[in-house]
Design brief:
The protein is an alpha/beta fold. Helices cover 54% and strands 16% of the residues. It has 23 helices and 14 strands. The strands form 2 sheets. Strands 1, 2, 3, 4, 5, 6, 7 and 8 form an 8-stranded mixed sheet that branches. Strands 9, 10, 11, 12, 13 and 14 form a 6-stranded mixed sheet that branches. A hairpin with a 3-residue loop joins strand 2 and strand 3. The longest helix is centred in the middle third of the chain and has 29 residues. About 3% of the residues have low confidence.
Protein backbone atom coordinates (compact mmCIF):
# COMPACT_ATOMS: atom_id res chain seq x y z
CA UNK A 1 0.00 0.00 0.00
CA UNK A 2 1.48 3.34 -1.09
CA UNK A 3 2.03 6.07 1.48
CA UNK A 4 -0.38 9.02 1.37
CA UNK A 5 0.92 12.19 -0.24
CA UNK A 6 2.49 14.63 2.17
CA UNK A 7 1.05 18.11 1.77
CA UNK A 8 1.71 21.42 3.47
CA UNK A 9 1.14 25.14 3.04
CA UNK A 10 4.31 26.98 2.00
CA UNK A 11 5.54 30.18 0.40
CA UNK A 12 7.39 29.45 -2.83
CA UNK A 13 9.84 31.81 -4.51
CA UNK A 14 10.75 31.14 -8.16
CA UNK A 15 13.65 33.16 -9.58
CA UNK A 16 15.08 33.18 -13.09
CA UNK A 17 17.87 35.03 -14.94
CA UNK A 18 16.62 37.22 -17.79
CA UNK A 19 18.22 36.49 -21.16
CA UNK A 20 20.42 33.69 -19.82
CA UNK A 21 20.72 31.95 -23.20
CA UNK A 22 21.85 35.19 -24.81
CA UNK A 23 24.38 35.86 -22.04
CA UNK A 24 25.85 32.35 -22.35
CA UNK A 25 26.00 32.59 -26.15
CA UNK A 26 27.90 35.89 -25.88
CA UNK A 27 30.30 34.86 -23.08
CA UNK A 28 29.82 31.41 -21.56
CA UNK A 29 32.78 31.51 -19.14
CA UNK A 30 32.05 35.03 -17.95
CA UNK A 31 28.34 34.29 -17.46
CA UNK A 32 28.98 31.14 -15.42
CA UNK A 33 31.56 32.97 -13.29
CA UNK A 34 29.14 35.86 -12.66
CA UNK A 35 26.37 33.42 -11.74
CA UNK A 36 28.65 31.64 -9.28
CA UNK A 37 29.69 34.94 -7.69
CA UNK A 38 26.13 36.23 -7.35
CA UNK A 39 25.01 33.01 -5.70
CA UNK A 40 27.93 32.84 -3.29
CA UNK A 41 27.98 36.52 -2.36
CA UNK A 42 24.30 37.47 -2.44
CA UNK A 43 21.58 34.98 -3.34
CA UNK A 44 22.43 32.09 -1.03
CA UNK A 45 23.44 34.17 2.03
CA UNK A 46 20.33 36.36 1.73
CA UNK A 47 18.09 33.31 1.38
CA UNK A 48 19.63 31.68 4.44
CA UNK A 49 19.36 34.90 6.49
CA UNK A 50 15.61 35.02 5.81
CA UNK A 51 15.00 31.37 6.66
CA UNK A 52 14.58 30.12 3.12
CA UNK A 53 15.49 26.66 1.80
CA UNK A 54 16.72 26.17 -1.75
CA UNK A 55 14.85 23.14 -3.10
CA UNK A 56 15.72 23.33 -6.77
CA UNK A 57 18.26 24.79 -9.19
CA UNK A 58 18.33 24.46 -12.95
CA UNK A 59 21.19 26.47 -14.39
CA UNK A 60 19.61 29.91 -14.51
CA UNK A 61 16.76 29.38 -12.04
CA UNK A 62 16.13 28.89 -8.33
CA UNK A 63 13.21 27.44 -6.40
CA UNK A 64 13.10 28.40 -2.72
CA UNK A 65 10.68 27.45 0.05
CA UNK A 66 9.82 29.78 2.96
CA UNK A 67 7.53 29.31 5.92
CA UNK A 68 6.74 33.06 6.08
CA UNK A 69 5.33 35.26 3.31
CA UNK A 70 6.90 38.34 4.89
CA UNK A 71 10.31 36.67 4.98
CA UNK A 72 9.95 35.48 1.37
CA UNK A 73 9.10 38.95 0.07
CA UNK A 74 11.72 40.66 2.25
CA UNK A 75 14.33 38.28 0.83
CA UNK A 76 13.18 38.90 -2.74
CA UNK A 77 13.24 42.67 -2.27
CA UNK A 78 16.71 42.54 -0.74
CA UNK A 79 18.08 40.46 -3.62
CA UNK A 80 16.56 42.67 -6.34
CA UNK A 81 17.75 45.90 -4.73
CA UNK A 82 21.24 44.50 -4.28
CA UNK A 83 21.33 43.23 -7.88
CA UNK A 84 20.46 46.72 -9.12
CA UNK A 85 23.53 48.07 -7.32
CA UNK A 86 25.78 45.20 -8.51
CA UNK A 87 24.69 45.76 -12.12
CA UNK A 88 25.12 49.52 -12.15
CA UNK A 89 28.72 49.50 -13.42
CA UNK A 90 28.19 46.66 -15.90
CA UNK A 91 27.42 47.21 -19.57
CA UNK A 92 23.74 46.82 -20.44
CA UNK A 93 24.12 43.67 -22.54
CA UNK A 94 26.17 41.90 -19.83
CA UNK A 95 23.95 42.56 -16.81
CA UNK A 96 22.52 39.57 -14.98
CA UNK A 97 18.98 40.54 -14.07
CA UNK A 98 16.37 38.52 -12.21
CA UNK A 99 12.66 37.96 -12.38
CA UNK A 100 11.05 36.69 -9.17
CA UNK A 101 7.61 35.20 -8.53
CA UNK A 102 6.21 34.53 -5.03
CA UNK A 103 3.16 32.44 -4.18
CA UNK A 104 1.53 31.10 -1.02
CA UNK A 105 -0.20 27.79 -1.59
CA UNK A 106 -0.42 24.10 -0.90
CA UNK A 107 2.47 21.93 -2.10
CA UNK A 108 3.13 18.21 -2.35
CA UNK A 109 6.36 16.96 -0.77
CA UNK A 110 8.33 14.09 -2.32
CA UNK A 111 11.62 13.65 -0.48
CA UNK A 112 13.55 16.87 -0.98
CA UNK A 113 11.34 17.95 -3.90
CA UNK A 114 8.17 20.03 -3.79
CA UNK A 115 5.42 19.86 -6.41
CA UNK A 116 1.86 20.98 -7.05
CA UNK A 117 -0.09 24.08 -8.05
CA UNK A 118 1.56 26.15 -5.32
CA UNK A 119 4.88 25.67 -7.10
CA UNK A 120 3.44 25.99 -10.61
CA UNK A 121 1.79 29.31 -9.83
CA UNK A 122 5.05 30.69 -8.43
CA UNK A 123 6.77 29.76 -11.70
CA UNK A 124 4.03 31.42 -13.76
CA UNK A 125 4.26 34.57 -11.61
CA UNK A 126 8.01 34.68 -12.19
CA UNK A 127 7.36 34.74 -15.95
CA UNK A 128 5.00 37.73 -15.47
CA UNK A 129 7.54 39.72 -13.45
CA UNK A 130 9.55 42.49 -15.08
CA UNK A 131 13.36 42.24 -15.13
CA UNK A 132 14.57 43.51 -11.72
CA UNK A 133 10.98 42.96 -10.58
CA UNK A 134 8.79 40.76 -8.39
CA UNK A 135 5.31 39.45 -9.06
CA UNK A 136 3.33 38.07 -6.11
CA UNK A 137 -0.08 36.43 -5.78
CA UNK A 138 -2.94 37.98 -3.87
CA UNK A 139 -2.50 35.26 -1.22
CA UNK A 140 0.95 36.67 -0.51
CA UNK A 141 -0.23 40.29 -0.61
CA UNK A 142 -2.83 39.59 2.08
CA UNK A 143 -0.06 38.30 4.36
CA UNK A 144 2.37 41.19 3.87
CA UNK A 145 -0.07 44.12 3.69
CA UNK A 146 0.73 46.55 6.50
CA UNK A 147 3.89 44.64 7.46
CA UNK A 148 6.25 45.71 4.67
CA UNK A 149 6.90 49.14 3.22
CA UNK A 150 7.02 48.29 -0.48
CA UNK A 151 5.34 49.73 -3.53
CA UNK A 152 3.46 46.83 -5.12
CA UNK A 153 0.91 47.87 -7.72
CA UNK A 154 -2.23 45.96 -8.57
CA UNK A 155 -2.00 43.88 -11.77
CA UNK A 156 -5.53 42.52 -11.66
CA UNK A 157 -6.69 38.99 -12.43
CA UNK A 158 -4.46 37.10 -14.86
CA UNK A 159 -5.11 33.76 -16.55
CA UNK A 160 -2.08 31.50 -16.03
CA UNK A 161 -1.25 28.54 -18.23
CA UNK A 162 -2.53 25.20 -16.87
CA UNK A 163 -4.01 26.91 -13.79
CA UNK A 164 -7.78 26.48 -13.57
CA UNK A 165 -8.78 29.86 -12.12
CA UNK A 166 -7.34 33.35 -12.76
CA UNK A 167 -4.84 34.57 -10.18
CA UNK A 168 -4.86 38.13 -8.85
CA UNK A 169 -1.31 39.50 -9.09
CA UNK A 170 0.74 42.38 -7.71
CA UNK A 171 3.93 43.85 -9.20
CA UNK A 172 7.01 45.50 -7.76
CA UNK A 173 10.05 46.81 -9.58
CA UNK A 174 13.40 48.20 -8.43
CA UNK A 175 13.94 51.95 -8.39
CA UNK A 176 14.74 53.64 -11.69
CA UNK A 177 18.30 52.94 -12.87
CA UNK A 178 21.05 55.52 -12.62
CA UNK A 179 21.43 57.95 -15.56
CA UNK A 180 24.30 56.03 -17.14
CA UNK A 181 22.10 52.98 -17.62
CA UNK A 182 19.90 52.39 -20.66
CA UNK A 183 17.34 55.13 -21.18
CA UNK A 184 14.63 52.72 -22.26
CA UNK A 185 14.10 49.48 -20.41
CA UNK A 186 13.52 46.31 -22.36
CA UNK A 187 11.57 44.68 -19.56
CA UNK A 188 8.43 42.69 -20.22
CA UNK A 189 5.22 44.64 -19.87
CA UNK A 190 3.00 44.04 -16.90
CA UNK A 191 -0.56 43.19 -17.96
CA UNK A 192 -1.56 46.82 -18.63
CA UNK A 193 1.74 48.31 -19.85
CA UNK A 194 2.65 48.98 -23.46
CA UNK A 195 3.43 45.88 -25.54
CA UNK A 196 6.80 44.86 -26.96
CA UNK A 197 7.82 42.66 -29.89
CA UNK A 198 10.95 40.99 -31.25
CA UNK A 199 11.43 40.24 -34.95
CA UNK A 200 13.50 37.06 -35.10
CA UNK A 201 15.94 36.22 -37.92
CA UNK A 202 14.06 34.62 -40.79
CA UNK A 203 15.13 31.06 -41.56
CA UNK A 204 16.63 30.41 -44.99
CA UNK A 205 15.73 26.86 -46.00
CA UNK A 206 18.38 26.51 -48.73
CA UNK A 207 21.27 28.17 -46.89
CA UNK A 208 22.01 30.44 -49.87
CA UNK A 209 24.07 33.57 -49.11
CA UNK A 210 21.83 35.75 -51.31
CA UNK A 211 18.79 34.49 -49.45
CA UNK A 212 20.46 35.28 -46.12
CA UNK A 213 20.91 38.85 -47.36
CA UNK A 214 17.26 39.05 -48.44
CA UNK A 215 16.06 37.56 -45.13
CA UNK A 216 18.12 40.11 -43.17
CA UNK A 217 16.57 42.85 -45.27
CA UNK A 218 13.08 41.64 -44.40
CA UNK A 219 13.85 41.63 -40.67
CA UNK A 220 15.42 45.09 -40.82
CA UNK A 221 12.54 46.62 -42.80
CA UNK A 222 9.85 45.01 -40.65
CA UNK A 223 11.58 46.18 -37.47
CA UNK A 224 11.83 49.71 -38.86
CA UNK A 225 8.18 49.67 -39.94
CA UNK A 226 6.93 48.47 -36.57
CA UNK A 227 9.08 51.04 -34.76
CA UNK A 228 6.96 53.77 -36.32
CA UNK A 229 4.06 52.71 -34.11
CA UNK A 230 4.96 54.73 -31.02
CA UNK A 231 2.89 52.52 -28.71
CA UNK A 232 4.88 49.39 -29.65
CA UNK A 233 8.42 48.77 -28.35
CA UNK A 234 10.54 46.86 -30.89
CA UNK A 235 13.65 45.03 -29.66
CA UNK A 236 16.77 45.85 -31.65
CA UNK A 237 18.16 43.44 -34.26
CA UNK A 238 21.36 43.16 -32.23
CA UNK A 239 19.39 41.43 -29.49
CA UNK A 240 17.58 39.02 -31.82
CA UNK A 241 20.59 38.08 -33.97
CA UNK A 242 21.78 35.60 -31.33
CA UNK A 243 18.84 33.33 -32.21
CA UNK A 244 19.88 32.75 -35.81
CA UNK A 245 20.18 29.01 -36.41
CA UNK A 246 19.56 28.30 -32.71
CA UNK A 247 16.10 26.66 -32.41
CA UNK A 248 14.35 27.35 -29.11
CA UNK A 249 10.87 27.39 -27.64
CA UNK A 250 9.26 30.75 -28.53
CA UNK A 251 8.22 31.25 -24.93
CA UNK A 252 11.82 30.87 -23.78
CA UNK A 253 12.98 33.36 -26.40
CA UNK A 254 10.29 35.82 -25.38
CA UNK A 255 11.35 35.54 -21.75
CA UNK A 256 15.01 36.02 -22.66
CA UNK A 257 14.23 39.12 -24.70
CA UNK A 258 11.52 40.32 -22.31
CA UNK A 259 8.83 40.78 -24.97
CA UNK A 260 5.14 40.03 -25.26
CA UNK A 261 5.09 39.14 -28.97
CA UNK A 262 7.40 37.39 -31.43
CA UNK A 263 7.44 37.62 -35.20
CA UNK A 264 9.28 34.85 -37.04
CA UNK A 265 9.41 33.47 -40.53
CA UNK A 266 11.19 31.56 -43.25
CA UNK A 267 12.40 32.08 -46.79
CA UNK A 268 12.49 29.50 -49.59
CA UNK A 269 13.43 29.77 -53.25
CA UNK A 270 12.05 27.40 -55.89
CA UNK A 271 13.28 28.08 -59.41
CA UNK A 272 12.50 31.71 -60.16
CA UNK A 273 10.03 32.06 -57.29
CA UNK A 274 10.65 33.28 -53.72
CA UNK A 275 8.26 32.23 -50.97
CA UNK A 276 8.21 34.02 -47.61
CA UNK A 277 6.22 32.69 -44.65
CA UNK A 278 5.67 34.73 -41.48
CA UNK A 279 3.86 34.18 -38.20
CA UNK A 280 3.06 36.29 -35.15
CA UNK A 281 3.16 34.56 -31.76
CA UNK A 282 1.68 35.57 -28.42
CA UNK A 283 4.57 34.77 -26.09
CA UNK A 284 2.35 34.31 -23.04
CA UNK A 285 0.56 31.34 -24.57
CA UNK A 286 2.77 30.30 -27.49
CA UNK A 287 -0.31 30.62 -29.72
CA UNK A 288 -0.03 31.71 -33.35
CA UNK A 289 -2.04 34.91 -33.73
CA UNK A 290 -1.50 35.41 -37.43
CA UNK A 291 0.29 33.63 -40.27
CA UNK A 292 0.63 34.35 -43.97
CA UNK A 293 2.66 33.39 -47.05
CA UNK A 294 3.92 35.67 -49.81
CA UNK A 295 5.37 34.83 -53.22
CA UNK A 296 7.25 36.78 -55.90
CA UNK A 297 9.76 36.52 -58.72
CA UNK A 298 13.49 36.39 -58.04
CA UNK A 299 14.18 39.22 -60.50
CA UNK A 300 11.77 41.47 -58.54
CA UNK A 301 13.44 40.78 -55.21
CA UNK A 302 13.22 44.35 -53.89
CA UNK A 303 9.62 44.66 -54.98
CA UNK A 304 8.86 41.44 -53.09
CA UNK A 305 10.73 42.82 -50.08
CA UNK A 306 8.59 45.98 -50.06
CA UNK A 307 5.37 44.02 -50.55
CA UNK A 308 6.12 41.57 -47.77
CA UNK A 309 7.17 44.30 -45.36
CA UNK A 310 4.11 46.42 -46.03
CA UNK A 311 1.73 43.49 -45.71
CA UNK A 312 3.25 42.20 -42.47
CA UNK A 313 3.58 45.56 -40.74
CA UNK A 314 0.16 46.76 -41.87
CA UNK A 315 -1.52 43.57 -40.66
CA UNK A 316 0.11 42.66 -37.37
CA UNK A 317 -0.02 46.12 -35.77
CA UNK A 318 -3.86 46.07 -35.77
CA UNK A 319 -3.77 42.40 -34.66
CA UNK A 320 -1.63 43.30 -31.65
CA UNK A 321 -3.84 46.32 -31.00
CA UNK A 322 -6.94 44.13 -30.75
CA UNK A 323 -5.21 41.69 -28.40
CA UNK A 324 -4.12 44.58 -26.18
CA UNK A 325 -7.72 45.79 -26.06
CA UNK A 326 -8.88 42.34 -24.96
CA UNK A 327 -6.09 42.20 -22.38
CA UNK A 328 -7.21 45.54 -20.92
CA UNK A 329 -10.82 44.37 -20.80
CA UNK A 330 -9.80 41.55 -18.45
CA UNK A 331 -8.41 44.01 -15.89
CA UNK A 332 -10.87 45.52 -13.37
CA UNK A 333 -11.46 49.23 -14.19
CA UNK A 334 -10.14 50.36 -10.82
CA UNK A 335 -6.79 48.66 -11.56
CA UNK A 336 -6.18 50.17 -15.00
CA UNK A 337 -3.08 52.28 -15.59
CA UNK A 338 -2.57 54.82 -18.40
CA UNK A 339 -2.08 52.11 -21.03
CA UNK A 340 -5.07 50.08 -19.89
CA UNK A 341 -7.31 53.16 -19.82
CA UNK A 342 -6.13 54.05 -23.31
CA UNK A 343 -6.98 50.54 -24.52
CA UNK A 344 -10.47 50.76 -23.00
CA UNK A 345 -10.97 53.95 -24.99
CA UNK A 346 -9.76 52.28 -28.18
CA UNK A 347 -12.21 49.44 -27.62
CA UNK A 348 -15.05 51.97 -27.97
CA UNK A 349 -13.49 53.82 -30.90
CA UNK A 350 -15.16 51.79 -33.70
CA UNK A 351 -18.62 52.34 -32.22
CA UNK A 352 -21.12 54.57 -33.96
CA UNK A 353 -23.08 55.60 -30.84
CA UNK A 354 -22.88 58.95 -29.07
CA UNK A 355 -22.85 57.21 -25.69
CA UNK A 356 -19.74 55.20 -26.60
CA UNK A 357 -18.04 58.31 -28.01
CA UNK A 358 -18.47 60.06 -24.67
CA UNK A 359 -17.35 56.99 -22.73
CA UNK A 360 -14.21 56.74 -24.90
CA UNK A 361 -13.42 60.40 -24.19
CA UNK A 362 -13.67 59.60 -20.48
CA UNK A 363 -11.16 56.76 -20.77
CA UNK A 364 -8.71 58.80 -22.86
CA UNK A 365 -8.96 61.74 -20.45
CA UNK A 366 -8.28 59.40 -17.52
CA UNK A 367 -5.27 58.02 -19.37
CA UNK A 368 -3.90 61.55 -19.84
CA UNK A 369 -4.48 62.27 -16.15
CA UNK A 370 -2.61 59.08 -15.24
CA UNK A 371 0.31 59.87 -17.57
CA UNK A 372 0.44 63.51 -18.81
CA UNK A 373 3.25 62.59 -21.22
CA UNK A 374 1.26 59.87 -23.02
CA UNK A 375 1.01 61.58 -26.42
CA UNK A 376 -1.31 59.06 -28.09
CA UNK A 377 -3.81 59.46 -25.25
CA UNK A 378 -3.81 63.26 -25.73
CA UNK A 379 -4.29 62.75 -29.48
CA UNK A 380 -7.18 60.29 -29.19
CA UNK A 381 -8.93 62.29 -26.45
CA UNK A 382 -8.88 65.24 -28.86
CA UNK A 383 -9.84 63.15 -31.88
CA UNK A 384 -12.90 61.67 -30.17
CA UNK A 385 -14.09 65.19 -29.31
CA UNK A 386 -13.75 66.19 -32.95
CA UNK A 387 -15.69 63.12 -34.08
CA UNK A 388 -18.38 63.70 -31.45
CA UNK A 389 -18.79 67.31 -32.60
CA UNK A 390 -18.94 66.23 -36.24
CA UNK A 391 -21.26 63.22 -36.11
CA UNK A 392 -23.75 64.38 -33.45
CA UNK A 393 -23.61 68.21 -33.51
CA UNK A 394 -24.16 68.56 -29.72
CA UNK A 395 -24.93 71.95 -28.18
CA UNK A 396 -21.34 72.29 -26.93
CA UNK A 397 -19.91 71.60 -30.41
CA UNK A 398 -17.71 74.72 -30.46
CA UNK A 399 -16.37 73.95 -26.98
CA UNK A 400 -15.50 70.40 -28.03
CA UNK A 401 -13.57 71.61 -31.07
CA UNK A 402 -11.75 74.25 -29.03
CA UNK A 403 -10.72 71.67 -26.42
CA UNK A 404 -9.63 69.31 -29.19
CA UNK A 405 -7.35 72.01 -30.60
CA UNK A 406 -5.77 72.68 -27.20
CA UNK A 407 -5.12 69.00 -26.55
CA UNK A 408 -3.55 68.51 -29.96
CA UNK A 409 -1.27 71.50 -29.40
CA UNK A 410 -0.12 69.82 -26.18
CA UNK A 411 0.36 66.50 -27.97
CA UNK A 412 2.48 68.03 -30.72
CA UNK A 413 4.53 70.03 -28.23
CA UNK A 414 5.36 66.71 -26.53
CA UNK A 415 6.11 64.94 -29.82
CA UNK A 416 5.84 66.77 -33.17
CA UNK A 417 6.46 63.45 -34.94
CA UNK A 418 3.49 61.65 -33.41
CA UNK A 419 1.38 60.09 -36.14
CA UNK A 420 -1.94 60.13 -34.24
CA UNK A 421 -1.60 63.78 -33.23
CA UNK A 422 -1.01 64.78 -36.86
CA UNK A 423 -3.93 62.90 -38.39
CA UNK A 424 -6.21 64.03 -35.54
CA UNK A 425 -5.26 67.64 -36.25
CA UNK A 426 -5.94 67.00 -39.92
CA UNK A 427 -9.47 65.83 -39.09
CA UNK A 428 -10.03 68.87 -36.86
CA UNK A 429 -9.08 71.25 -39.69
CA UNK A 430 -11.35 69.30 -42.04
CA UNK A 431 -14.32 69.73 -39.71
CA UNK A 432 -13.53 73.45 -39.68
CA UNK A 433 -13.52 73.40 -43.51
CA UNK A 434 -9.80 74.25 -43.56
CA UNK A 435 -9.14 71.62 -46.20
CA UNK A 436 -5.60 72.45 -47.31
CA UNK A 437 -4.36 72.37 -43.71
CA UNK A 438 -6.31 69.16 -43.13
CA UNK A 439 -4.64 67.38 -46.03
CA UNK A 440 -1.22 68.69 -45.06
CA UNK A 441 -1.40 67.23 -41.53
CA UNK A 442 -2.78 63.89 -42.76
CA UNK A 443 0.01 63.66 -45.35
CA UNK A 444 2.52 64.33 -42.58
CA UNK A 445 0.97 61.54 -40.49
CA UNK A 446 1.36 59.13 -43.43
CA UNK A 447 4.96 60.27 -43.93
CA UNK A 448 5.66 59.54 -40.26
CA UNK A 449 4.08 56.08 -40.49
CA UNK A 450 3.21 54.86 -44.00
CA UNK A 451 1.58 51.73 -42.54
CA UNK A 452 -0.82 53.52 -40.19
CA UNK A 453 -4.37 52.54 -41.13
CA UNK A 454 -5.96 55.43 -39.15
CA UNK A 455 -3.68 57.94 -40.91
CA UNK A 456 -4.76 56.71 -44.36
CA UNK A 457 -8.40 56.56 -43.28
CA UNK A 458 -8.43 60.12 -41.94
CA UNK A 459 -6.72 61.25 -45.15
CA UNK A 460 -9.58 59.62 -47.08
CA UNK A 461 -12.09 61.42 -44.85
CA UNK A 462 -10.39 64.77 -45.41
CA UNK A 463 -10.29 64.23 -49.19
CA UNK A 464 -14.02 63.48 -49.06
CA UNK A 465 -14.56 66.67 -47.07
CA UNK A 466 -12.77 68.70 -49.71
CA UNK A 467 -14.93 67.12 -52.41
CA UNK A 468 -12.18 65.02 -54.03
CA UNK A 469 -14.23 61.83 -53.96
CA UNK A 470 -12.23 59.76 -56.45
CA UNK A 471 -9.03 60.42 -54.49
CA UNK A 472 -10.84 59.53 -51.27
CA UNK A 473 -11.92 56.18 -52.71
CA UNK A 474 -8.36 55.50 -53.88
CA UNK A 475 -7.14 56.13 -50.34
CA UNK A 476 -9.80 53.76 -48.97
CA UNK A 477 -8.37 51.10 -51.30
CA UNK A 478 -5.04 51.53 -49.47
CA UNK A 479 -6.80 51.20 -46.13
CA UNK A 480 -8.46 47.96 -47.22
CA UNK A 481 -5.15 46.63 -48.55
CA UNK A 482 -3.37 47.39 -45.29
CA UNK A 483 -6.10 46.04 -43.00
CA UNK A 484 -8.82 44.01 -44.75
CA UNK A 485 -10.30 42.88 -41.40
CA UNK A 486 -10.03 46.20 -39.64
CA UNK A 487 -12.30 46.69 -36.58
CA UNK A 488 -13.32 50.05 -38.09
CA UNK A 489 -14.64 48.34 -41.22
CA UNK A 490 -18.13 49.85 -40.82
CA UNK A 491 -16.69 53.38 -40.95
CA UNK A 492 -14.60 52.38 -43.97
CA UNK A 493 -17.68 51.12 -45.85
CA UNK A 494 -19.57 54.26 -44.82
CA UNK A 495 -16.87 56.42 -46.41
CA UNK A 496 -17.20 54.42 -49.61
CA UNK A 497 -20.97 54.96 -49.50
CA UNK A 498 -20.69 58.74 -49.12
CA UNK A 499 -18.11 59.11 -51.87
CA UNK A 500 -20.15 56.89 -54.19
CA UNK A 501 -23.29 58.94 -53.53
CA UNK A 502 -21.54 62.19 -54.42
CA UNK A 503 -20.12 60.57 -57.57
CA UNK A 504 -23.68 59.44 -58.47
CA UNK A 505 -22.65 55.78 -58.29
CA UNK A 506 -25.83 54.94 -56.46
CA UNK A 507 -25.71 51.15 -56.71
CA UNK A 508 -22.20 51.21 -55.21
CA UNK A 509 -23.53 53.51 -52.50
CA UNK A 510 -26.40 51.18 -51.60
CA UNK A 511 -24.06 48.18 -51.45
CA UNK A 512 -21.49 49.95 -49.25
CA UNK A 513 -24.23 51.36 -47.00
CA UNK A 514 -25.61 47.86 -46.48
CA UNK A 515 -22.18 46.66 -45.37
CA UNK A 516 -21.76 49.62 -43.02
CA UNK A 517 -25.26 49.23 -41.56
CA UNK A 518 -25.62 45.49 -41.03
CA UNK A 519 -22.16 44.55 -39.75
CA UNK A 520 -20.47 45.29 -36.42
CA UNK A 521 -20.74 48.89 -35.14
CA UNK A 522 -23.47 49.98 -37.62
CA UNK A 523 -23.39 53.55 -38.90
CA UNK A 524 -26.52 55.69 -38.77
CA UNK A 525 -25.23 58.11 -41.41
CA UNK A 526 -24.40 55.23 -43.76
CA UNK A 527 -27.96 53.96 -43.43
CA UNK A 528 -29.20 57.44 -44.24
CA UNK A 529 -27.05 57.91 -47.36
CA UNK A 530 -28.06 54.43 -48.51
CA UNK A 531 -31.71 55.49 -48.34
CA UNK A 532 -30.87 58.65 -50.28
CA UNK A 533 -29.23 56.51 -52.97
CA UNK A 534 -32.36 54.31 -53.17
CA UNK A 535 -34.38 57.47 -53.79
CA UNK A 536 -32.02 58.48 -56.61
CA UNK A 537 -32.45 55.01 -58.11
CA UNK A 538 -36.23 55.43 -58.07
CA UNK A 539 -36.78 52.75 -55.44
CA UNK A 540 -38.96 55.03 -53.34
CA UNK A 541 -40.98 52.30 -51.59
CA UNK A 542 -37.85 50.62 -50.24
CA UNK A 543 -36.50 54.04 -49.20
CA UNK A 544 -39.74 54.96 -47.42
CA UNK A 545 -39.80 51.65 -45.55
CA UNK A 546 -36.20 52.17 -44.47
CA UNK A 547 -36.93 55.75 -43.41
CA UNK A 548 -39.85 54.54 -41.28
CA UNK A 549 -37.59 52.04 -39.50
CA UNK A 550 -34.98 54.76 -38.96
CA UNK A 551 -37.53 57.22 -37.58
CA UNK A 552 -38.79 54.58 -35.15
CA UNK A 553 -35.28 54.50 -33.66
CA UNK A 554 -34.57 58.21 -34.07
CA UNK A 555 -37.89 60.09 -33.86
CA UNK A 556 -36.11 63.46 -33.67
CA UNK A 557 -34.53 63.04 -37.13
CA UNK A 558 -35.36 65.89 -39.51
CA UNK A 559 -34.27 67.08 -42.95
CA UNK A 560 -32.95 70.28 -41.40
CA UNK A 561 -30.72 68.23 -39.08
CA UNK A 562 -29.33 66.38 -42.11
CA UNK A 563 -28.58 69.69 -43.88
CA UNK A 564 -27.06 71.23 -40.76
CA UNK A 565 -24.93 68.28 -39.64
CA UNK A 566 -23.79 67.04 -43.04
CA UNK A 567 -21.28 69.09 -44.95
CA UNK A 568 -22.92 71.78 -47.08
CA UNK A 569 -22.72 69.82 -50.32
CA UNK A 570 -23.34 66.34 -48.92
CA UNK A 571 -26.04 67.27 -46.41
CA UNK A 572 -27.95 69.35 -48.95
CA UNK A 573 -27.83 66.56 -51.56
CA UNK A 574 -28.98 63.92 -49.07
CA UNK A 575 -31.84 66.06 -47.74
CA UNK A 576 -33.00 66.79 -51.27
CA UNK A 577 -33.04 63.08 -52.13
CA UNK A 578 -34.94 62.16 -48.92
CA UNK A 579 -37.60 64.89 -48.98
CA UNK A 580 -40.43 62.56 -50.10
CA UNK A 581 -39.89 59.46 -47.92
CA UNK A 582 -41.54 60.66 -44.73
CA UNK A 583 -38.69 62.38 -42.87
CA UNK A 584 -40.12 65.65 -41.49
CA UNK A 585 -38.68 69.01 -42.35
Amino acid sequence: MSEPLQRRLSVIVAADVVGYSRLVAADEAGTLAAMKAHRAELWDPTTEAHGGRVVGTAGDSLLIEFQSAVAAVECSLAVQRAMTVRNDDIEDDRRMRLRIGVNLGEIVVEGDDILGDGVNIAARLEALAAPDGICISDNVMRQIRGKLESDFHDGGDVALKNIAAPVHVWHWRAEAPSPRRAARDEGPPTPTEKPSIAVLPFECRAGDADQEFFADGIVEDISAGLSKFGWLFVVSRNSTAAYRNHPADPRDIARDLAVRYLLGGSLRQSGQRIRVAAQLIDAATGAHIWAERFEGKVDDVFEVLDEVTEAIVGTIAPEIGQIEIERARRVPPENLDAWGLYQRGLALFPSGSEEDFRAAIGFFDASVASDPNFVDAHALAAHMRTRLAWFFAPENRDELLETSGRMLSTALSLDPGNCAANYALGRLHSVRDEHDLALRYCEEAIRINPNSVPAHFEYAQCLHGKGDHDASLAEIDIVMQLSPKDPHIAAIHATVAFNSFMLERYEDCVQAAELATHGANPRFWAELVGLAALCRLGRSEAAAAGAARLLARRPSLTLSFIRQTGRDEVGTAMAAALKDVGIPE
